[in-house]
Automatic annotation (TrEMBL):
Name of one Pfam family that matches: HSP90
Protein name: HSP90 family protein
NCBIfam families (alphabetical): PRK14083.1
Keyword terms: ATP-binding, Chaperone, Nucleotide-binding
Similarity annotation: Belongs to the heat shock protein 90 family.
Length: 615
């Protein structure tokens, strides 16, 4: 037995972390990944990296000369490659050293970008489905070296032994797993085949699968990526890309946008969603690196605003994180994100400039999200604002259509103001947009930035009343008594009554009552009620001139003409109340309790009057 080295006990001496191997293996295999199925992805990815290294070693070898063979019967899962292989020394250094990877070893740092793996832990994911990993390998770098066998176990122990060269005549590596009883779900032949297709359908090396039933092995990736194929016509190409998007995402894309960034060897498609997505919901994109599917939930390759697409891309040099569930946020990723965003913008610009039908369908599905985007993104605003739909006095139409007939665009600040004035404003030839929905008013006000010939103004009640024709003095005088009675009846609502002539003649009355005016009246009523108290003082100090609601009676309307001539005071009062109630109902704003009871009362009074007259 050796005595402890006293020097190492001196204070300040360097020591090394101790590692609980079982705990570390458990952590890296069981807790890093979201599903056990990733074991196959990690094995296939190691095989791809080994093929990349072999091609670097033998650059003259034609593409496709080295491949990957998968095998799964009920008792084993095997992944075999014709890659660069390992010597016994490599096995100790890389395979059996957690956290060490040949893919970032000295001397090949400049090749780092060539490989998918880099962390030196991926192989441990095999412990998700098996207790032992069995590897047989032969090095292509050192052809004279014997084949080597390695067995690694979940408790962190391993054995290595050299095998005769005949045990594996050609270079490459075979990894064999004997699945645990509880891992059947992930290792059954059909499942392995499906996973191989899922992860490897875009791989550029030949990959086959054999289920041990004696039949021929089937190709996993028989065709190149859909964007890498050639098609007889552009139409056939876009149909094939759309069909691929549908197969991958399960929806028929509204359109497919081809993505191409030669600088990082990235190609792929963005599928435009056919339906609106709830604001704030982000979609994951499918990211392949060197053909290998690494992540289905990568959000980082597109900016937040690109909520309307889902992408599949295959890149040469994006760096995944250790779990592969997301991408490493570096300068390359930032540049890729900007460049892809540019390509989506170009698609929008193209649709806006030359494909109105596509643009229309796109905006029909996504106009709400596009509006929220345009508020903050000047370029989107510039491209799309004229094409966004709004509710207007000409019906639902785009600002482009609307501003062709209305050089001055008026916009209300609430839905209810729009309801109040729409019919009258349009009869007066005014063009009004409903600015009551989120973002709409703000967006309409920015129209002159793009269409300088158009002016935009808020439509306040004063603007509208200025467009209503006053009646002549004689008519005004004849109606004076009725108007006084009406004002008296409606005083409880702080409502003034006026007589004007306006179209459409079928509208008996217009209630001009902005939300601000109502708030102001509520505030002054509270101030009066609280007079003398603390709140009364505060509310009183805020007092502005309380804007009054205005009931504007239409002198062109036959009913109003009859009403102003009524000489029965009770009936005059009831008719004024009924006109107010009807105008309030038309505005579709919530009624106050006093208004509901007024409508009720006036209706019953009028009914009683009518019945009395008939009897
Ligand atoms: N099929 C293979 N052929 C040759 N070498 C392999 C093979 N599989 C694994 N290795 C060697 O074992 C090392 C460790 O593999 P492991 O999958 O744990 O990590 P990695 O691929 O380097 O990185 P990552 O953790 O990012 O996947 C690799 O760096 C490589 O040197």
């Amino acid at each position: 037995m050796t005595l402890p080295d006293t020097a190492s006990h001196q204070s300040g001496a360097d020591r090394t972390f101790q590692v609980d191997l079982r705990g570390l293996v458990d952590l890296l295999s069981h807790h890093l990944y979201s599903s056990p199925r990733v074991y196959l992805r990690e094995l296939m990815q190691n095989a791809v990296d080994a093929l990349t290294a072999r091609h670097a070693l033998e650059p003259a070898a034609p593409a496709g000369s080295f491949g990957i063979r998968l095998y799964a019967d009920r008792s084993v899962v095997r992944v075999e490659d014709d890659g660069v292989g390992l010597t016994e020394e490599d096995v100790h250094t890389f395979l059996a050293t957690i956290g060490r990877s040949s893919k970032r070893a000295d001397g090949i740092a400049e090749q780092r970008g060539d490989f998918i793996g880099q962390f030196g832990i991926g192989l441990l994911s095999c412990f998700l489905v098996a207790d032992e990993i069995h590897v047989v390998s032969r090095s292509a770098r050192t052809p004279g070296a014997p084949a080597v066998e390695w067995r690694g176990r979940g408790d962190g122990s391993y054995t290595v032994r050299a095998l005769p060269a005949s045990a594996r005549p050609a270079p490459g590596t075979t990894v064999t797993l004997t699945p645990r009883a509880d891992a059947g779900e992930w290792t059954a032949p059909a499942r392995v085949q499906a996973l191989a297709h899922h992860f490897g359908s875009l791989l550029r090396h030949p990959v086959t699968f054999d289920d041990g039933s004696g039949g021929p092995a089937v190709p996993v990736n028989p065709e190149p990526a859909p964007w890498a194929r050639t098609y007889p016509t552009p139409g056939a190409r876009s149909r094939a890309l759309a069909a691929y998007g549908e197969e991958v995402f399960g929806f028929t894309p509204l359109d497919t946008v081809e993505l191409n960034l030669p600088a990082v060897g990235l190609r792929g498609i963005a599928c435009v969603l056919p339906e609106a997505v709830p604001a704030g919901r982000r979609h994951g994109h499918r990211v392949h690196v060197k053909g290998m599917l690494l992540s289905e939930q990568a959000e980082e390759i597109l900016p937040d605003w690109a909520f309307f697409v889902r992408c599949v891309v295959d890149a040469e040099s994006l760096r995944p994180t250790a779990s592969r569930e997301s991408l490493y946020e570096d300068d390359t990723l930032a540049a890729v994100r900007d460049a892809l965003a540019e390509q989506l913008r170009a698609w929008i610009a193209r649709a806006a400039a030359s494909d109105p039908e596509l643009l229309h369908r796109f905006l029909q599905a996504h106009h709400l999200s596009v509006k929220s985007l345009a508020v903050h993104d000047d370029e989107i605003l510039r491209m799309l604002l004229p094409w966004l739909p709004f509710e207007t006095t000409d019906g639902h139409c785009t600002l482009d259509e609307f501003s062709r007939t209305h050089r001055t665009v008026l916009v209300t600040s609430s839905v209810e103001e729009f309801r109040q004035v729409a019919a009258i404003a349009s009869a007066a030839g005014l063009g009004v947009v409903n600015g009551g929905y989120t973002y709409d008013r703000e967006l309409v006000h920015r129209l002159p930035e793009i269409r300088p010939e158009v002016s935009v103004a808020d439509l306040d009640p004063a603007t509208l009343t200025a467009h209503l024709d006053p009646v002549d003095r004689e008519t005004e005088l004849a109606a004076a008594a009725y108007l006084a009675q009406a004002r008296d009846a409606l005083a409880v609502f702080d409502c003034d009554v006026a007589l004007r002539a306006f179209q459409p003649a079928s509208a008996p009355a217009l209630l001009v009552d902005s939300r601000e005016a109502r708030h102001e009246r509520t505030r002054s009523r509270l101030a009066r009620e609280q007079e003398g108290g603390l709140w009364g003082d505060i509310l009183g100090a805020l007092q502005q001139e309380a804007p009054r609601a205005q009931l504007i009676l239409n002198q062109l309307n036959p009913l109003v003409r009859t009403a102003v001539a009524i000489d029965e005071p009770e009936l005059a009062r009831t008719s004024a109340e009924a006109l107010y109630g009807q105008a309030a109902l038309l505005s579709r704003r919530p009624l106050r309790p006093a208004e509901s009871s007024l409508i009720n009362r006036s209706f019953l009074d009028l009914l009683a009057h009518a019945l009395r007259k008939d009897s």
